[in-house]
């Protein structure tokens, strides 16, 4: 999209709206904007809902206790040429073989791993743990907003203003982006419009104009405010037409909702709609039974996950220098496999950071070990990196958010962050 | 009628027992006494019709054409009383429509049998390529898959919301299902949900809170969803089966949610120790073969027989299955439970942040009536806060509410059971619409269920979804759902767009359109899309009433109740 067009459109839109009742929230902040470099840094947060087994994703093949605890589901030690084993990363850790699509990014030092990462809260409830990871307040359920929303609200607004600073792919705005900042939730970029369906008439404005007028003016409330933001977003999307941007560099996204989400995030980025935070989630990690090892249930999910991230990386090409992808999951799984060749709810897991500014090719964080006395409550991988310190580093150093509002009442002990960014 | 007397004892003035409207006339008796309402409604700043609209959209899923007139004829207080006693309201049209969804009447074991998951061996053969997907589909056709269970249940829920005469009961089933939420996509829960709603939720929707807690605690759907069925005393070692020799143990999942979400509330004054003690009390509350549709079973060997201490009260050793029931008794009579449940009810019926005084009065009724839900509801609907100007149209409709109320507003018909033809049952399309708007029914994964606050439902994608749903509905693009906007405007001259608009605003928004909305819609009438010159007659104008109706249903006003 031509930047000049967008700028003049947004300015015109902003002035027009400021003349009416309550302007959309993003314009209020834009009015206070300072001049910043044209291209925003972008964070793509990916939530693996259901608690991914970090020990299968990033395999501690150098830890003999790993093999002792998992007789049927362990990923074999790397054995170049024979296949099926872990892909060695540093002589101690290895990628699950289904994560092979991420190998090039590791080799280019654009992919980093933070292992034994997780929450200070000990809950093994998916619901609570996801809630805490999104609200950013482990142990406190009454928090109204999400940490990414707080970060966005505290970041300096950009010029030109955009309704697309934060976008979640899906039908519901996730907790992590709920808050004063305002964020767009959409299931599909192509469907983000009023679908008239009737017989189109030349020059006729259609139902969209009608709906837009209905929400244009009105009382100062959530409904009208959201309505106005929505139509600004619809119009901007119409002229930017991100859905027409095909994947570049031969990138092929995996079929399914996750691949679709990432493909559309890449479209929004390439269409320069002002995206700064994108969110997507992917489920199917709750492998209590029949987890599998190099093949099977978990391997299938990991393959889709890796193919999606690799396609995004390839598709965005040089734009990845502005992007950080951060993956997270509410907790990990038991070190010992259970009686159903699966794993139960555990504690720490592994998180990935992918992008141009990443200090990659390294597994960050202290490895706590898998010996019985080293385990959390005698059964789970202990947390050595509080997820908040990883998230703070990314939000502060990559996005430029102030640390204070992200995780209220908490700061990284000694100001130490994992150091995943170069 | 016991509940009326209890209600009377608590909050009502001037109850005349014999005048209870819905008492059946004795056989052979002459004319029954004219119905007289026992509920006393407070003075309200709302107009009489606004009061009726308020009741129809708070205690139900919004007015159908003619409902306001019907309630006006019955009298508001009498209407409320009847809604509070739903089993006396005949509902034949709904019952006929629900025949389209056979899963509703089946037990869990029958559902497991009739809608099976392909066994692991078969799935393995498909995965390895030994068996083709086509062969699998022949052995396990789509209409016999477990997904059908949830699909029919979802369709039935929307159909009930649209068609039931027992509107308050439907609202309360939705309320309690979310309060005692289970997730239909979690393993064997998929076959248990119809029985759960039918046996644990619906019979108690306006009954006693203790019965609800006990029925959900014992139900396989809840036992499975929150893992209590595998919770055992800490030192139990499995003697046989796939886990032989494995040490089992306590699972706190249900105990935690029972305290936090079902009874006391997160700030209800319990500790982590209480969670563990409650979990110990419920050890052994299990399911007899969940994958085969078995029912509740108490497993004495899994039960922790020791002394427990819950919220300061001692539960002596050796109580067995009764330990769990003791816990429920302690919880439902706890001060925090009265306040927590009353707050949620007041939020549903009055406002997102309900007035503290109202919550206190509702909680007092809860305590004095020993958790009589009908009495608490009666206290809320006879409160000045319920009838206040602040409460009027203060709630944002949930996706289920917006879909059901739109179909009702346009007097939509759900084929085939209702319309008589052989097409798809309209409830399925409506349920998918509710899902697209962000509330796939029975598929709320967290135990909190779906939220009841505006900010959860108002976002850009969802708002566009609501507008698109309005367009689909008005243009009859939802399979099995028929609306006839022109017929519904019978007698209005379509060549006079302003008259069409007035009529639409009157029947859909009941005069509650803001001047701004009216002006915007009037301006739309100038648009060639809305007012088209027909092919038959180059002079007369013909209003696109479907599009106009869609605009009204997608308006900000229609998103409120």
Fraction of residues in H or I helices of chain B? 40-55%
Which class of secondary structure composition applies to the elements of chain A?
alpha/beta
User: Which regions of chain A are unreliable across 5 or more consecutive residues at pLDDT < 50?
Assistant: 1-21, 199-204
Content-based structural category of chain B: mainly alpha
Global Rg of chain B: 26 Å
Give the count of helical stretches of chain B.
Answer: 27
General description of the model:
The complex is a heterodimer of chains A (422) and B (561). With 422 residues, chain A is α/β, with parallel strands linked by helices. Chain A is 32% helix and 12% strand. Chain A has helices at residues 3-19, 25-31, 54-57, 64-69, 103-107, 126-135, 147-154, 206-216, 222-240, 257-270, 297-316, 387-399; strands spanning 42-48, 58-59, 87-88, 94-95, 111-118, 166-169, 184-186, 277-282, 323-328, 349-355, 362-364, 385-386. In chain A, the strands form 2 sheets. In chain A, strands 1, 5, 6, 7, 8, 9, 10, 11 and 12 form a 9-stranded mixed beta sheet that branches. A 3-stranded antiparallel beta sheet of chain A has the order 2-4-3. Chain A is globular, with a radius of gyration of 22 Å. The two termini of chain A are 31 Å apart. The model of chain A is unreliable at 1-21 and 199-204 (pLDDT under 50). With 561 residues, chain B is mostly helical. Helix content of chain B is 48%, strand content 4%. In chain B, the strands form 4 sheets. Chain B has a two-stranded antiparallel ribbon. A two-stranded antiparallel ribbon of chain B has the order 3-4. In chain B, helix 1 crosses helix 19 (373-381) and helix 5 runs antiparallel to helix 9 (147-163). The radius of gyration of chain B is 26 Å and the shape is globular. The two termini of chain B are 31 Å apart. Chains A and B meet through helix 6, strand 7, helix 8 and helix 9 of A and helix 22, helix 23, helix 26 and helix 27 of B.
């Amino acid at each position: 999209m031509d930047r000049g067009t967008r700028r003049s459109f947004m300015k015109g839109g902003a002035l027009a709206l400021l003349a009416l009742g309550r302007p959309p929230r993003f314009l209020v902040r834009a009015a206070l904007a300072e001049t910043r470099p044209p291209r925003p840094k972008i964070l793509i947060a990916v939530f693996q809902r259901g608690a991914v087994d970090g020990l299968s994703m990033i395999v501690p093949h150098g830890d003999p206790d790993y093999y002792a605890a998992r007789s049927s589901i362990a990923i074999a030690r790397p054995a170049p040429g024979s296949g099926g084993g872990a892909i060695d990363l540093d002589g101690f850790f290895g990628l699950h073989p289904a994560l092979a699509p991420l190998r090039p990014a590791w080799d280019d030092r654009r992919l980093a791993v933070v292992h034994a990462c997780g929450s200070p809260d000990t809950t093994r409830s998916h619901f609570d743990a996801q809630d805490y990871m999104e609200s950013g307040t482990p142990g406190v359920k009454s928090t109204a907003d999400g940490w990414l929303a707080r970060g966005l609200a505290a970041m300096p607004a950009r010029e030109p203003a955009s309704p697309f600073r934060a976008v979640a792919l899906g039908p519901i705005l996730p907790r992590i982006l709920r808050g004063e900042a305002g964020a767009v939730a959409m299931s599909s970029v192509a469907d983000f419009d009023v679908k008239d369906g009737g017989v189109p008439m030349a020059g006729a404005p259609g139902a969209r104009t009608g709906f837009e007028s209905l929400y244009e003016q009105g009382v100062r409330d959530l409904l009208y405010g959201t309505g106005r933001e929505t139509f600004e977003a619809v119009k901007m999307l119409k002229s930017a037409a991100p859905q027409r941007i095909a994947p570049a560099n031969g990138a092929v996204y995996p079929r399914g909702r996750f691949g679709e989400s990432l493909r559309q995030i890449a479209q929004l980025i390439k269409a320069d709609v002002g995206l700064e935070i994108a969110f997507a989630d992917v489920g199917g990690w709750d492998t209590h039974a029949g987890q599998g090892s190099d093949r099977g249930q978990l391997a299938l999910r990991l393959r889709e996950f890796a193919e999606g991230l690799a396609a995004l990386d390839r598709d965005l090409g040089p734009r990845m220098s502005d992007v950080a992808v951060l993956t997270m999951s509410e907790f990990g799984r038991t070190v010992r496999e259970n009686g159903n060749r699966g794993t139960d709810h555990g504690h720490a897991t592994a998180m990935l950071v992918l992008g141009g500014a990443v200090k990659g090719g390294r597994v960050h964080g202290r490895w706590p070990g898998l010996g019985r006395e080293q385990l959390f409550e005698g059964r789970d991988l202990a947390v050595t990196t509080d997820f908040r310190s990883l998230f703070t580093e990314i939000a502060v150093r990559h996005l430029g958010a102030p640390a204070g509002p992200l995780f209220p009442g908490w700061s990284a002990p000694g100001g130490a962050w994992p150091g995943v960014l170069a | 009628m016991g509940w009326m007397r209890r209600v009377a004892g608590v909050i009502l003035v001037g109850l005349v027992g014999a005048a209870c409207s819905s008492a059946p006339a004795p056989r052979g008796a002459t004319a029954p006494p004219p119905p007289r309402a026992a509920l006393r409604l407070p003075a309200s700043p709302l107009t009489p019709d606004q009061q009726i609209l308020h009741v129809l959209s708070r205690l139900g899923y919004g007015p159908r054409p003619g409902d306001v007139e019907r309630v006006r004829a019955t009298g508001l207080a009498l209407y409320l009383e009847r809604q509070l006693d739903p089993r006396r309201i005949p509902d034949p049209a709904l019952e006929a429509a629900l025949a389209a969804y056979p899963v509703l009447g089946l037990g869990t074991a029958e559902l497991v049998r009739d809608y099976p998951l392909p066994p692991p061996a078969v799935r393995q053969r498909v995965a390895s390529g030994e068996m083709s997907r086509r062969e699998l589909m022949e052995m396990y056709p789509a209409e016999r898959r477990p997904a059908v269970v949830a699909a029919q249940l979802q369709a039935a829920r929307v159909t009930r919301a649209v068609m039931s005469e027992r509107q308050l009961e439907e609202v309360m089933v939705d309320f309690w299902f979310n309060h005692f939420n289970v997730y239909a996509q979690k393993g064997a829960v998929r076959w248990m949900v119809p029985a759960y709603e039918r046996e644990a939720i619906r019979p108690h929707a306006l009954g006693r809170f203790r019965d609800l807690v006990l029925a959900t605690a014992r139900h396989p759907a809840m036992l499975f969803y929150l893992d209590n069925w595998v919770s055992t005393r800490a030192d139990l070692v499995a003697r046989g089966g796939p886990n032989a020799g494995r040490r089992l143990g306590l699972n706190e999942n249900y105990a935690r949610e029972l305290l936090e979400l079902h009874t006391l509330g997160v700030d209800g004054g319990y500790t982590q120790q209480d969670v563990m003690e409650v979990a110990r009390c419920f050890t052994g509350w299990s399911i007899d073969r969940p994958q085969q549709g078995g029912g509740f079973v108490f497993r004495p060997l899994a039960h922790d027989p020791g002394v427990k201490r819950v919220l300061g009260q001692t539960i002596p050793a050796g109580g067995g299955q009764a330990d769990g029931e003791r816990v429920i008794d302690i919880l439902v009579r706890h001060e925090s439970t009265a306040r927590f449940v009353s707050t949620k009810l007041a939020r549903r019926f009055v406002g997102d942040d309900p007035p503290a005084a109202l919550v206190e009065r509702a909680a007092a009724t809860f305590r004095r009536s020993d958790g009589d839900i009908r009495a608490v509801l009666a206290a809320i609907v006879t409160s000045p806060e319920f009838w206040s100007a602040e409460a009027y149209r203060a709630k944002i409709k949930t996706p289920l509410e917006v879909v059901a109320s739109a179909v009702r507003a346009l007097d939509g018909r759900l084929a085939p059971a209702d319309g008589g033809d052989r097409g798809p049952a309209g409830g399925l399309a409506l349920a998918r619409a509710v899902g697209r708007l962000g509330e796939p029914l029975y598929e709320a994964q967290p135990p909190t269920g779906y939220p009841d606050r505006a900010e959860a439902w108002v976002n850009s994608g969802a708002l566009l979804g609501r507008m698109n749903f309005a367009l689909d509905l008005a243009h009859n693009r939802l399979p099995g759902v028929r609306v006839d906007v022109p017929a519904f405007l019978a007698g209005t001259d379509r060549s006079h767009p302003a008259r069409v608009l007035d009529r639409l605003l009157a029947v859909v928004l009941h005069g509650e359109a803001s001047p701004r909305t009216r002006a915007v819609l009037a301006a739309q009438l100038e648009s060639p899309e809305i007012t088209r010159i027909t092919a038959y007659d180059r002079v007369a104008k013909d209003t696109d009433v479907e599009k106009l109706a869609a605009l009204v249903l997608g308006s900000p006003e229609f998103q409120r109740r």
